[in-house]
Design goal:
Layout: E1 2-7, H1 14-20, E2 22-25, H2 31-38, E3 45-50, E4 56-67, E5 81-95, H3 96-101, H4 109-112, E6 118-121, H5 123-130
Parallel strand pairs: 1-3
Antiparallel strand pairs: 1-6, 2-5, 3-4, 4-5
C-alpha cells in the first residue's frame, strides 16, 4: 500500500528528510490517521506532501519500521513509532489544485477529510503522483 503524508515545510520539510536521511514520523494526533500509521508495513512507499506552504506532493519516503506500542483501549491509542527513509524528489511536484482536478482523486479521503495528515493512496493515485 502507498500513503500520502502531510508535513508543514516550515516545521519539517522534504529537504529536512533528505538531509537527515531517516526520521521518525510523529506529531500525529487524529485517531483515524493513527490507525493508518499502525497499518503501515516496512518497505511501503509514501509520498510527502507539503501542506500550508507550497501545497504540493514533493517527494517519496520508504517505511523502514513500524513499532507498535503495547495494545491499549481505543480511547487511549498510542502513537506507533514509524521510521521513514528519504526517497527521491518527484520529477515534478503535483499541486493541490492539480490533485483536486485529477479524476483519479475523485471521492478520495484526501478531499473528504482534508485535515487528515496520513491518507492511504490507491495504486492509481500513487502512479499519478509519480508521473512526470
Amino acid at each position: 500500500m502507498h500513503y500520502l503524508l502531510k508535513s508543514e515545510p516550515d516545521v519539517y520539510s522534504f529537504d529536512d528528510l533528505l538531509r537527515d536521511g531517516e526520521t521518525t514520523w510523529d506529531g500525529i494526533k487524529n485517531p483515524q490517521a493513527l490507525i493508518t500509521l499502525r497499518n503501515m508495513k516496512p518497505g511501503e512507499i509514501c509520498v510527502i506532501y507539503h501542506s500550508n506552504t507550497g501545497k504540493a506532493a514533493v517527494g517519496t519516503a520508504k517505511v523502514v519500521s513500524v513499532d507498535l506500542a503495547p495494545p491499549v483501549p481505543p480511547s487511549k491509542m498510542t502513537t506507533p513509532i514509524v521510521r521513514l527513509k528519504a526517497g527521491k524528489r518527484l520529477k515534478r511536484e503535483k499541486s493541490l489544485a492539480e490533485m483536486r482536478e485529477a479524476a483519479v482523486f475523485k471521492g478520495s479521503l484526501l478531499f473528504r477529510q482534508f485535515r487528515l495528515s496520513v491518507v492511504p493512496l490507491t495504486p492509481d493515485q500513487y502512479d499519478w503522483l509519480l508521473s512526470a
